């Protein structure tokens, strides 16, 4: 993963997260031309992905709290259903939510059958004539 190579680039990426992904604004605040901000994003995608994962992980406890509070919701939350949906998404993305795994057990029995490659066409014809 390509990490930022200097303090100005680190500042740009911190601002990028602070400004909700507004590349132009983060670039200008960090002292870069707007266009160069897009170059940095293109060259550091894995690093940005890691920053996003970190942000989601930081909001995991809050998402869990929203779900627990939703169990006791007596209609006092105006957007309760939407908040719970967002919380479930966050928890799923950080690996805490719904698990979709398939357990497969395969038993292989050993038999006495051996598969051989096919004969050449000429050999097959000569065997048929005899």
Topology:
Elements: H1 7-18, H2 23-30, H3 34-43, H4 45-58, H5 60-71, H6 80-93, H7 121-129
Helix pairs in contact: 1-2, 2-3, 5-6
Written account of the structure:
Helix 1 packs antiparallel against helix 2 and helix 5 crosses helix 6. The model has no long low-confidence stretch (mean pLDDT about 85). The longest helix has 14 residues, at about 45-60. About 60% of the residues lie in helices and about 0% in strands. The chain has helices spanning about 5-20, 25-30, 35-45, 45-60, 60-70, 80-95, 120-130.
The total beta strand count reads 0
Number of helices: 7
Coarse morphology: flat
The largest pleated sheet is described as: none
Q: Low-confidence stretches at least 5 residues in length (pLDDT < 50)?
A: none
Query: What percent of residues adopt helix (DSSP H or I)?
Result: 55-70%
Strand and helix order: HHHHHHH
Short description:
The chain is mostly helical. The chain is 61% helix and 0% strand. The model has no long low-confidence stretch (mean pLDDT 83).
Describe this protein with a few key phrases.
single chain, 130 residues, mainly alpha, flat
């Amino acid at each position: 993963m390509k990490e930022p190579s200097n303090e100005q680039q680190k500042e740009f990426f911190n601002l990028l997260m602070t400004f909700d992904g507004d590349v132009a604004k983060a670039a200008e605040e960090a002292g870069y031309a707007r266009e160069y901000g897009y170059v940095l994003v293109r060259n550091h995608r894995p690093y940005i992905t890691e920053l996003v994962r970190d942000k989601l992980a930081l909001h995991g406890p809050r998402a869990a709290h929203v779900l627990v509070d939703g169990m006791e919701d007596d209609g006092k939350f105006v957007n309760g259903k939407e908040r719970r949906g967002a919380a479930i998404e966050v928890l799923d993305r950080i690996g805490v939510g719904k698990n979709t795994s398939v357990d497969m057990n395969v038993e292989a029995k050993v038999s006495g059958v051996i598969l051989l490659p096919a004969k050449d066409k000429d050999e097959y014809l000569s065997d048929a004539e005899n």
